[in-house]
Specification:
Number of helices: 8
CATH class of the largest domain: Alpha Beta
Largest sheet: 6 strands, antiparallel
Number of domains: 2
CATH topology of the largest domain: Chorismate lyase
Strand content: 25-35%
Shape: globular
Helix content: 25-40%
Structural class: alpha+beta
Order of helices and strands: HHHEEHEHEEHHEHEE
Radius of gyration: 20 Å
CATH architecture of the largest domain: 3-Layer(aba) Sandwich
CATH superfamily of the largest domain: Chorismate lyase-like
Distance between the termini: 27 Å
Strand order of the largest sheet: 3-4-5-8-7-6
């Protein structure tokens, strides 16, 4: 990602996502951002216009760019928000080398040293919600362990134990009917499943580098995505 406005946009999204600027509060001014990034006014103005277009902020005369609440902007930063009472158990953390086939699937480079993580998420009552596999670059996640993952999860580690800043994720959603091999791979043979929703995506940092490739397999009854479709 080499466009200046995208870097500013991702920084502003980071401030909103991390609740550093709350709904009803004002984002840093254009002059402050010009000083911070050393950019001209144009890319900063484009970044703010994009936020306005997405209804994430609104321009208020005499105040600046104010963050909207989620009811207004329909903004969801993570599917984790859909399952606040769930429990994630990380069952696997192993090293592997990225080959050509894995590179094509994940976007990582051939010969990258990767870490493979498996996770199973269940409701408070113990019912399976999803299971997932993640691939990350080993050199960006030093001191990561199963104990650390099971204590707070991967995103908490990224946000609190590294200097990485998550920007956004790109997702592809599909339905799987032939799911036995996936259950066996995660040692979930006995689970009652009628099909699986695959949420396959890549998580990027503010510079456009892939931080994580993830495949999450949801039970369909737990997968509900409400959204607003805007007409232009």
């Amino acid at each position: 990602m080499d466009k200046k406005w995208e870097i500013v946009f991702d920084y502003l999204m980071y401030l909103i996502r991390e609740n550093k600027v709350l709904p009803g509060e004002v984002l840093p001014s254009q002059n402050m951002l010009k000083t911070k990034f050393g950019y001209s006014e144009q890319p900063i103005r484009i970044a703010f216009n994009k936020l306005i277009e997405l209804q994430i902020v609104k321009s208020v005369n005499g105040k600046g760019f104010v963050v909207q609440d989620k009811i207004s902007n329909n903004l969801l930063f993570s599917f984790r928000e859909l399952f606040p009472g769930s429990n994630s158990v990380y069952t696997n953390l192993e090293e592997l080398k990225c080959d050509i086939n894995l590179s094509r699937t994940t976007g990582f480079q051939v010969n990258d040293d990767l870490l493979r993580i498996k996770c199973i998420r269940k409701t408070f009552e113990g019912e399976l919600i999803l299971f997932q596999e993640s691939l990350i670059k080993r050199d960006k996640f030093k001191n990561l362990s199963l104990d650390v993952l099971n204590e707070n999860g991967l995103m908490h580690f990224i946000e609190n134990k590294t200097k990485l800043i998550v920007s956004h994720s790109a997702k592809k959603i599909s339905f799987i009917t032939d799911y036995e091999n996936y259950l066996n791979y995660f040692n979930l043979n006995d689970e009652m499943v009628d099909g699986l929703i695959l949420d396959e995506g890549k998580v990027y940092d503010i510079f456009g580098e892939i931080l994580e490739f993830r495949q999450s397999y949801y039970q369909p009854k737990f997968f509900e995505w409400n959204f607003i479709e805007w007409r232009k």
